[in-house]
């Protein structure tokens, strides 16, 4: 069967490293076929029982709402007043989004992933607050959540974690995008990046204490609504990860809506401080490969389940990089 893999610059670098370490000249098709067959022999992860939830319609913006799209590789800083409601929404689905937050009136009072984790566990959802460090203050409340499964374990990604998979040290990262977004909005160095809330990143803590993440499973139209409890700056960026599954191996844009509360509307506060220019994620290229015909039926079953993409080529790409991740990291 013939599939066409859409590969980013960093994914192509990973493929070259795979080929080099697999004996030099192994073709991409042979590596991909191996990865698929390994997955077929492995036990199906409990997390992927049944079918991935269906996409839903995206929401309609109301008059007066801020309604913007954050491109992959970019970030956005928003000024919110207490009472404003922020919605982060999936457009294509499968996209992790990093969220940082800072109180505007008290310099140094920033969102604390560790304090929030201590109070609400590692997967906060509706009804939970996002807390600052000392003096502990609730900054935001999650008031609606269509696809729970957000993460408070992992730091913002940096080139450090991509290098073992690509042999390169220039991967775009949430840490760099957050820093660039703060600088572009004129907020650096007063505000600095911190450990984020990783929206829609499935994660778990194993019995041995090891952390593990999974490809993002949220679908188009999934949304999380947060209510500002104090005047804030919020920084959001779609994670540019194309190797571990935080973007289903192809970073995509997400949507942000801000509905002003009474106070924010009266004061004229709130809005987009400065959408930062997007980092260059490089052009994607299509690689056509031929896989053994015996893989058609099992790939079709995995495609229908939806956890690793809606097309057979997306499933093959996901399995190839999941295999590579296990081979090259402590998760192996
Ligand atoms: Zn990231």
Structural write-up:
With 332 residues, this protein is an alpha+beta fold. 26% of the residues lie in helices and 24% in strands. The protein is built from eight helices and 15 strands. The strands form four sheets. Strands 2-13-4-11-7-6 form a six-stranded antiparallel β-sheet. Strands 8-5-12-3-14 form a five-stranded antiparallel β-sheet, covered by helices on one side. A two-stranded antiparallel ribbon has the order 1-15. A hairpin with a 5-residue loop joins strand 9 and strand 10. Helix 2 packs across helix 8 and helix 7 (296-305) packs across helix 8. The two termini are 29 Å apart. Bound molecules: zinc ion. Zinc ion is lined by residues 98, 156-157, 173-174, 239, 241, 246. Zinc ion (ZN) binds next to loops.
Offer a few descriptive terms.
15 strands; alpha+beta; six-stranded antiparallel sheet; binds zinc ion; 332 residues
